[in-house]
Amino acid sequence: MEPLVVVDHVNKHFGELHVLKDITTTVHKGEVVVVIGPSGSGKSTLCRAINRLETIDNGTITIDGKKLPEEGKELAKLRADVGMVFQSFNLFAHKTVLENVTLGQINVRKRSKADATKRAMELLERVGVANQASKMPSQLSGGQQQRVAIARALAMDPKVMLFDEPTSALDPEMINEVLDVMVGLAEEGMTMVVVTHEMGFARKAGQRILFMAEGEIVEEATPEEFFTNPKSPRAQDFLSKILTH
């Protein structure tokens, strides 16, 4: 398997707080890595560091063999290869659903409006909201908005997709419609790093679990191993709390 994202001895502090402690891990092409752990364990910071929304103190992150640049045009170019879906949907409120999905294609990927529109409609169809294309984001449910956000990220043809707790802001009945889209992506071989509290998704779609606590990767295992036989006391404790409810 070919490495796509390589995180090598990465450290990050917020003031006194050491949020990422010497993190080293590799995500291979076509792999779905699910990052789980208690709140404040550094999961989201790791996710955001991969496309440099968070700077790091030291260590390196490479994407498809290229080191993450500090800033400027090179960073924008590399970021286009890294799709990101957040807790909040971050759609442009004053643009239609269709415009949200064509904008980056036209501005960053330099596609013609016609090509961008065609691609956007294909993706909106794929995530099940093509009939909402002319609406404004505020007219959509949270689940629909998050699916548009996924389509928007996919429209850039990213090499890897990062999901930072994509369902945590949604009402319970909308969570599955978003997870179903993500499971579909995983099945199609999209490389994904997913920070989530949804253990069902982690078991079903994840190929590898990274369990983080207090800024460290405490355990790495397949979902089967992790959920049935966690090795570390920290993971055992975490799972006993969440799997009994």
TrEMBL record:
The keyword Transcription appears for this protein: no
Annotated EC: 7.4.2.1
Gene Ontology CC: plasma membrane
InterPro entries: AAA+_ATPase (IPR003593), ABC_ATPase_HisP-typ (IPR030679), ABC_transporter-like_ATP-bd (IPR003439), ABC_transporter-like_CS (IPR017871), MetN_ABC_transporter-like (IPR050086), P-loop_NTPase (IPR027417)
Membrane topology of the entry: Peripheral membrane protein
Catalytic activity field: a polar amino acid(out) + ATP + H2O = a polar amino acid(in) + ADP + phosphate + H(+)
Keywords: Amino-acid transport, ATP-binding, Cell membrane, Membrane, Nucleotide-binding, Transport
One GO molecular-function entry: ATP hydrolysis activity
Annotated Pfam families: ABC_tran
Enzyme class: translocase
Residue span(s) of domain ABC transporter: 5-239
ATP-binding as UniProt keyword: yes
PROSITE patterns: ABC_TRANSPORTER_1, ABC_TRANSPORTER_2
Source superkingdom: Bacteria
Subcellular location: Cell membrane
Family membership noted in the UniProt record: Belongs to the ABC transporter superfamily.
Name recorded for this polypeptide: ABC-type polar-amino-acid transporter
Organism: Glaciihabitans arcticus
